[in-house]
């Protein structure tokens, strides 16, 4: 009986570890949400029905975010995929008074200054959307397929440093996931470990 309890505890631990890694359930419908964007418009996930959607959690003060924006990597991905009708939503879940918190005007200026071209920047100061997706780091990425199913959750790539020189050496998890979804193929690594700064929830 004791062995059975130990086995059950082990299985539960493995399950919890997998859930913690994946966040919301990959392979299941992506959690629905609405948020106000940097232009004061309410944006809902349902607005992009039938399109592939990328969710990017961001904090401009985070060195790991700076790695991907300072190198131009994040902007290049945004440009490449929005040109293919992918909806790219940058989500800022930093609470007021926390690193990375911006209002709409500041968010728009930031996009212009760094050449970012997301479909929309969502201001999630309450952290509601971030918590819904169990977003833990910036950057952290999610890909939702045309059927509204969460196809990928995790890191932008495989090397968890703030060094831009590592981008070219890394396995580009996000790029591989989006390319697979656009090609109608399964994502080979649908859940990876995100890295970066902690999301600055209130």
Q: What brief labels describe this structure?
A:
seven-stranded mixed β-sheet; 18% strand; two-stranded antiparallel sheet; alpha+beta; 202 residues; disordered N terminus; Glutaredoxin
Q: What's this, in brief?
A:
The chain has helices at residues 2-22, 63-70, 73-82, 104-114, 128-132, 173-182, and strands at 34-37, 42-44, 53-57, 87-92, 120-123, 137-138, 140-144, 150-154, 197-198. With 202 residues, it is an alpha+beta fold. It has a single domain, classed as Glutaredoxin.
Describe the structure in your own words.
The strands form two sheets. The chain has a seven-stranded mixed sheet, with helices on one face. It has helices spanning 2-22, 63-70, 73-82, 104-114, 128-132, 173-182, and strands at 34-37, 42-44, 53-57, 87-92, 120-123, 137-138, 140-144, 150-154, 197-198. Residues 1-22 have low confidence and may be disordered. The protein is built from six helices and nine strands. The longest helix has 21 residues, at 2-22. It is 32% helix and 18% strand. It has one domain (2-198): Glutaredoxin (3-Layer(aba) Sandwich). Strand 4 (87-92), helix 4 (104-114) and strand 5 form a beta-alpha-beta unit.
- Residue fraction in strands: 15-25%
Annotated CATH topology: Glutaredoxin
- Give the count of helical stretches: 6
Q: What is the C-level CATH assignment?
A: Alpha Beta
**Spatial order of the strands forming the largest sheet:** 2-1-5-4-3-7-8
> Would you report the number of β strands?
9
Described by the principal axes of the CA atoms, the overall outline is globular
What is the ordering of alpha helices and beta strands?
Answer: HEEEHHEHEHEEEHE
Q: What separation lies between the terminal Cα atoms?
A: 44 Å
Question: Per CATH, which architecture?
Answer: 3-Layer(aba) Sandwich
Coarse structural class? alpha+beta
Question: What does the radius of gyration come to?
Answer: 17 Å
**Which spans of ≥5 residues are poorly predicted at pLDDT below 50?**
1-22
CATH superfamily: Glutaredoxin
Mean pLDDT: 91
């Amino acid at each position: 009986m004791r062995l059975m309890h130990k086995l059950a505890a082990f299985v539960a631990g493995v399950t919890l570890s997998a859930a913690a890694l994946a966040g919301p359930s990959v392979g299941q419908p992506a959690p629905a949400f609405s948020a106000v964007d940097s232009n004061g418009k309410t944006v809902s996930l349902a607005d992009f029905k039938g399109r592939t959607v990328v969710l990017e959690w961001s904090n401009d003060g985070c060195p790991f975010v700076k790695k991907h924006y300072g190198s131009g990597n994040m902007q290049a991905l945004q440009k490449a995929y929005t040109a293919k009708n992918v909806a790219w939503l940058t989500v800022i879940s930093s609470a007021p008074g926390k690193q990375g918190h911006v209002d709409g005007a500041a968010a728009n200026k930031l996009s212009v200054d760094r050449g970012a071209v997301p479909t929309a920047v969502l201001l999630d100061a309450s952290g509601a959307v971030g918590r819904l997706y169990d977003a833990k780091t910036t950057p952290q990425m999610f890909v939702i397929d045309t059927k509204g199913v969460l196809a990928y959750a995790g890191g932008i790539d495989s090397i968890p440093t703030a060094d831009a020189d590592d981008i070219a050496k890394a396995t580009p998890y996000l790029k591989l996931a989006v390319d697979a979804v656009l090609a109608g193929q399964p994502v080979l690594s649908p859940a990876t470990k995100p890295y970066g700064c902690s999301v600055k929830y209130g």
